[in-house]
């Protein structure tokens, strides 16, 4: 009987382990497995389509990709993707011979390039909820955005190397001027050359047109735009885009 | 004793199941899990970096991403990614009001856009081995490339809709002219307007420059390039790129 009881206990133990292994695997499948019945491979394809700019325009993340996008944003892969891009940018930077006349520039976007809005977007189900200008304005006015560490690291290295950094944001100057300066400062973005914000003249203009105009003005002033960093294709497309562009990931929202 | 024996058999059965579940999970982790110890999350980031054109130029797939890229290419995700892109292209196509003067065009690349070289690249470890012009030439001269089904489907729908399809390839005209025409035909690519191949005048020219020149000539002839499909950024960048571009995935090789 002792053997039988021991066998039963062992069976229960093994069943518990098996159940755990299967549940871990099941959760894993939901997030990562193309063959899973809820078809997250669609979400893989959707995110790639968004990042490569094949899917456009888009207003919200497909609701069945919420779990996948949340997992992507907060469980390390987003940071890992950013780090690889920053390594590429650094490698490119190290190969540039500067003119050294104070006109060697990089253009860098602010939201979700320097400063992260992931905390805010968590409350908007990582982009599954539609864009909410009132709530976003209230969030941005708090000045609580956090630095994206790998971008801050590149930012500092670019300054050390002698580049002039131009921060170019679609944020409305009348509303966000002071808070943006403070938020950048309290997150360590110190020593940039200029912060360009959207003036009344460009209100309602698309990101591509507004940012192209601003970059063209920089070139007209004599700046050479060596690099251009942004999480939206509208940061990088249009004209005067810069000698090389770097698209940072952002599967949460789309700015035309 | 019967109970004890039954218990032992059950234990063995459960152990076998557990072992299977764990081995499936382990294989799964190697391919898909960012937290896995062999760090495939780097390969995720690398592939995204390549597809988004942040990583450039690059000559070979990192060797420790071989398993990941093989899995991506042959276990369904590549096809799924292509299908989503073709759906986007179709949606865009359906919204176009044609001029109907015979000058509404799409430009489409050939290798790994219409015709797949995955079978060849399998022998080159999906791009982990360096580019081998002699072997690729021998492969392409066989005319054994297979149609990419979702692209062929779009191809046919574009023709049905009344668009003129211009196939624009970097393949050398002197070497591959006849075999390319035959390979396209035997794979069902029938009814296109023109096949433009690289003439002696453009030998050694970068893909961006050669393809931009060809597209500019098409525009000079009066064609409106509504869409432009290619697996390389050099198919889509430069000038006269078309009203909308679609980047097809290709993590196996890079053409400047």
Summarize the structure in words:
2 copies of one chain form a homodimer. With 256 residues, the first copy, chain A, is of the alpha/beta class. The first copy, chain A, folds into 2 domains: 1-29; 73-247, 3-Layer(aba) Sandwich (Rossmann fold), CATH 3.40.50.1000. The first copy, chain A, has 10 helices and 7 strands. In chain A, the strands form 2 sheets. Chain A has a 5-stranded parallel β-sheet, sandwiched between helices. Chain A has a two-stranded antiparallel ribbon with strand order 2-3. Chains A, B: GO terms for molecular function: acid phosphatase activity; nutrient reservoir activity. Chains A, B: Belongs to the APS1/VSP family. Chains A, B: It comes from Lupinus luteus. Chains A, B: Residues 1-21 form the signal peptide.
Write the layout of secondary structure elements.
The structure is a homodimer of 256-residue chains.
Chain A: H1 2-32, H2 40-51, H3 66-74, H4 77-94, E1 104-108, E2 115-116, H5 118-123, H6 133-142, E3 146-147, H7 149-161, E4 164-172, H8 173-186, E5 194-198, H9 207-221, E6 224-230, H10 233-236, E7 244-247
Parallel strand pairs in A: 1-4, 1-6, 4-5, 6-7
Antiparallel strand pairs in A: 2-3
């Amino acid at each position: 009987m002792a053997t039988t009881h021991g066998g039963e206990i062992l069976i229960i133990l093994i069943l518990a382990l098996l159940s755990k292994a299967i549940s871990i695997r099941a959760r894993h499948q939901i997030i990562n497995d193309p063959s899973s019945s809820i078809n997250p491979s669609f979400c893989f394809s959707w995110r790639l389509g968004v990042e490569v700019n094949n899917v456009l325009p888009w207003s919200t993340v497909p609701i069945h990709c919420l779990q996948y996008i949340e997992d992507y944003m907060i469980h390390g892969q987003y940071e890992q993707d950013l780090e690889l891009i920053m390594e590429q940018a650094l490698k490119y930077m190290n190969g540039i011979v500067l003119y050294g006349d104070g006109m060697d520039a990089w253009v860098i976007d602010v939201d979700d390039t320097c400063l992260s809005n992931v905390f805010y977007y968590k409350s908007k189900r990582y982009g599954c909820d539609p864009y909410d200008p009132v709530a976003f304005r209230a969030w941005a006015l708090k000045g609580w955005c956090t630095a994206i560490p790998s971008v801050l690291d590149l930012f500092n290295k670019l300054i050390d190397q002698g580049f002039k950094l131009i921060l170019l944001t679609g944020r409305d100057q009348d509303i966000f001027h002071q808070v943006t300066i403070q938020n950048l400062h309290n997150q360590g973005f110190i020593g940039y050359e200029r912060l360009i914000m959207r003036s009344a003249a460009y209100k309602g203009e698309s990101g591509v047109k507004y940012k192209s105009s601003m970059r063209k003005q920089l070139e007209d002033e004599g700046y050479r735009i060596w690099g251009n960093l942004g999480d939206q294709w509208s940061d990088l497309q249009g004209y005067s885009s810069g000698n090389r562009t770097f698209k940072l990931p952002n599967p949460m929202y789309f700015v035309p």
